Every structure is written in structure tokens, then in C-alpha cells.
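Ticket #4471: complex job returned nothing on first submit. Input attached below:
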Amino acid sequence: MRFKFIPHTADVRFEAYGSTYSETFSNAVLAMFNIMTDTEKIKSVVDKYISVSSESLESLLYDFLEEFLVLFDSEGFVPHSVSAKIENSGDNYTLKAKVSGDTDLSKYEIKPDVKAVTYNEMSIKKIDGVWVAHVICDV
Amino acid sequence: MKLTRLNDYSWKIEKEGAMQVPVIIYASDILMDKIKLDKSLNQIMNVAQLPGIQKQAMIMPDAHEGYGFPIGGVAAFDLDEGVISPGGIGYDINCGVRLVRTSLEKDKIKKALPELLNLMYTEVPSGVGRAGSLRVNKNTLMDVLHDGAKWAVDNNYGFKKDLERHEDNGKIDVTDLNISDNAMKRGLPQLGSLGSGNHFLEVQYVEEIYDKKAAEAFGIFKGQICVMIHCGSRGLGHQVCSDYIREMERTLGSDLSKLPDRQLVYAPIKSELGERYFNSMSAAANYAWANRQMITHWVRESFSRILKMSPEDLEMDLVYDVTHNIAKMEKHQIDGKTKKVCVHRKGATRSFGPSREEISSIYRKTGQPVIIPGSMGTSSYLLVGTDSAEEASFGSTAHGAGRVMSRSAAINKFTGDQIKKQIESQGILLKTASWKGVVEEAPQVYKDIDEVVNVSNNAGIGKLVAKLKPMGVIKG
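Support reply: We reran it on our side without changes. The output follows.
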């Protein structure tokens, strides 16, 4: 399982999983877009390269997910697949990702609900060998 | 926590621990039971701990859990000692509601309604892939961020007299505007669009009048057709909120871990960062006003084309535009003295009575119109602000129904067909880009709006004027 939605009264809560945190971050992006559409149905037409760096893993996840909200609002980009690689040196985390997806949204049913990523109850933990990211999005 | 009942419609949580002021809750028994189900009470007790908070932290009858502040939270801060917190305003800066009146009666529009809804659905961009129908450039966007609704009116979106029917005339003065590239990028393609989620555009009729005098002052009569528009500052506002949450976190540094909740991050009002945030928030508020004003123009054009009468002849005046996610500098009575404070309203509506100088001359004798939208397919209400709200809630009341069920629970419980039938069986027409969205916003997932406005009325923080029922709904 790559991600799972967990009920939240007002907003959307999900957990993303992976054997490395790089994989978990990639799956978190897919989870966020699956709030709005079925990413399996999105065609890989356009490639994007994303690079972010932050002071902690939580902030990195926040910034990484937010990059996608900017791409979505400004270019109408929705991903089909995400491949992220995170490097850590001291207090700095750097993420580089290759993303494939589509910008012609007229082809899909999309409910553009996600307003923002939040820090509310955000956590990234290794549990029984699996990296679990817990995120709530404001919708 | 020590929760005591003050009267039928209000409760108090005494100061404890790091709380600097008590908490006041405006709710009936029924609403209090719902409020207790989530973290709203804990969240407002956290707010009561923030530096410089004045008198009392409050939640309105429709409160539910949010980020940092609960939705429905109201708090005022001292300008010297106090703070400003993006989490006390929300991601959707100046999310708000406006009501447009007409001279039409309910029966006159029934036949034309399907065609009218179709046209408005095309004219008013709502969802994705159909972003704003006009593409503005960066310079124009800067003008919008400075001039708000005035920019829209100057560019022929609406009437000049619309402006005095906004809080702050639809424009907060902005100096040294400094908005991130990401916020600009998100704002450019979305200007003049409704957005999705709980945002909507409804054709409604006035079902009941509770206060004849106020209704008359607002130009409202029984059986009248009105249009209600609910939307905000779109991705631009969300990005401004997010940018400053991040920057304030970095600035707070190790103090961040002392906060009861990371999302309560703040900056002193009197600091470079606090002032910059207030400016950027104001610019996003201006964007939202321009946005709603443009939508108003397209609504008028649509009515005009279908009914073959000019908007002027249809008397499509703006009744009022209220904002329910914002911070404002206002004067209030604190410890017997008049004091200027920074009032945060997050999911709460300003509800000023006749004595406030902020209200434009047309409503000075009556008080400010307060518009409280229901959820999709349920009643909405027009209220009037009261002088007693000043003392009770820094002149604030509820902003809507407030959710009680998660989106995923709604999707597991209902189908699009079910909700469509349920709404259509009440004679309401519905146009939407997403049936999944309709299920998520089903009337059952919200608190009872009737109960919310009754508490507002009986607690004296906003008096009932009229009830509006939907006839046609457009949901992004």
C-alpha cells in the first residue's frame, strides 16, 4: 500500500508509506493528488524536475507538497508518477524529483480542493521498517 | 478544564495554566455537544495563551476544529504587546459572502432558471481547467492587490455604488507590497473564479422576514429573488498564508517548541515580519474582493441576457459583502477604555451595530448586514449586526454551518445520485463540475444552520432579518 486516507471532520488526513523516506515522499504527493482525482488515470505527457531544500524532514515534505500545489494552480499540472531522492547533510535536507504527468486537465474529472498542506499533526516516522508520513491537507 | 454555563447561549472556561484570558463559547446545548466532539475547545484554550491577547478568547456557535485557531475563533490582541497569527485568519484569506438583491419575485424566474443557471455556469469560472476567463499580467495583478473591489469597479466590473456595500469599501490600504512569486503564480490564472470545496453561487428566494424594518433598509422583501456568492482569495491567499507560516516558524526558532500547537506560530504585530504579513494578508483580501466583484458582474450580465432587462432595471444592487477570514485593526472597549486592537476572525463574521463608524452611511441607522450561508441546498440567513455584539464578541458572530462529518465518511455513506435526488426533490437545481464534491458537501455533513443562527440571535451577537432558500446552486 502506497497511502491511505484517514477520516478527519473538516479536512483530509492521509498516511503515505515507503521503504525509504524518498519513496514515502513520492507516495505522499500521489496521496495528495488522489484527494482531487485518480492519479492512475493521469497520462504521463509532461515531465517536471523539482528541487527543494529545507531544515528538517517535516519542512521538506511541506515544501515539496506545496511545490505541487503551485504547479497545479499555475500550470494545471497533475502527476501520474513521482520519483524523489532525498539527501541529508547535517541540518539540511535536499530533495530532487522527476515527475511525470499531464497539464491538459479537460481530459480528467478533477475536484481542485486542496488549498494547502499543513503542519497539523504532521509526522514522519519509521515504524516496523516502514517510513510513515502523516499529513493533513486543508481543503 | 472548568466549563461553566453563563446562560442558555453562552459558556465560559476559566483561566488555567498558561491561559492569559478566559474563553467564552456561544452555543446552545445541541451545538455544545457537537463542539465537544472535536478539538475546538482545546484549540481556543491554546489561543488564550498567546502574547497580548485581550479580555477573552471566543468561539462562535458554528465552531469546529481547525489549524491553530479553531474555525469560528475570535481573538483580539494588543498592538504593542500582541501578536498576529496566520493560523488565526486561515488559508483562505478573506473568504467571504455577498448577497445581491433583485426586483424579481420567485414566480417570475422559475421558467428561466435552468437557462440562467447554465449561462452563469459558463460565465463564472468555477473549477479546474476552467480557470479565470481573463488572463491578467503581473502589473494588473499588482493593481488588483492594491485596489481590491475598486480595481474591479474601475475596470467596469460593477457599479460604483457597490463599493460602499463592502466592509472597508472592499479595499484595505497596502504599502510596500511584497508577495512571493509562488503566490503571484497561483493568483494570475485564478482571478475571477469561484473555486471549489464549500464555495458556491446560489440563486435564492426570501422565504421569511423576521425583522421588517431592517429588511426594508437592506432592500429585502418576502418572495424576492437574490443571489449569494461564497468564495475567497483562491491559491494566492493560500500561498500567502503558507509563506508566512514558514517564515514565522524560522523566525521563532527554538521558541517554536514552546508553542502549544505549531500552527499557532505568530509574529509580534509591531515587528517587520508582523507588519509585512499584515500587508500581504490585506493584499490577498483585496484580491478576494476583486474576485467576488467580478463574479457579481458576470451574474448581473447573465440575468440581464436571460431576462432581457438591464441589471439597473432588475435592481441588482449589492446588499453587502462580508469577510469571514481576516484580521483587522479595530477600536473596542477593553477594561472600560476604548482601545485599538488587532481582531482575528477565523470563520467568524463581523457583526457591527449602528454605533460603529466603520459602517457606511446607507446602513448607519440599521447596523451592518451579516450574511450567513448554509451548506449546499439548505437555508441561508441575513442578519443585522448589533451594538451588544461589541461587548459580547468584539462585534462578531457565526459564519456558516460548520462541518460535523468528514469528507471520506460522506463518500462512504452517500452516493452522488442519492444527494442529487435529495436536493432535486426539494425543487433545487444543481450544476457542478464534480459529483464527488457534491457528496462531500452533502447537507447531512454540516451542523444545523437554523440552530446556529438562532444562537446568534438569542445571544444578541447578530439579529435575524431574513431566511433565504436556494432554488439553483452552482458548485465548483
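The domain at 3-404+446-475 of chain B is CATH 3.90.1860.10 (tRNA-splicing ligase RtcB). Closing as resolved unless it happens again.
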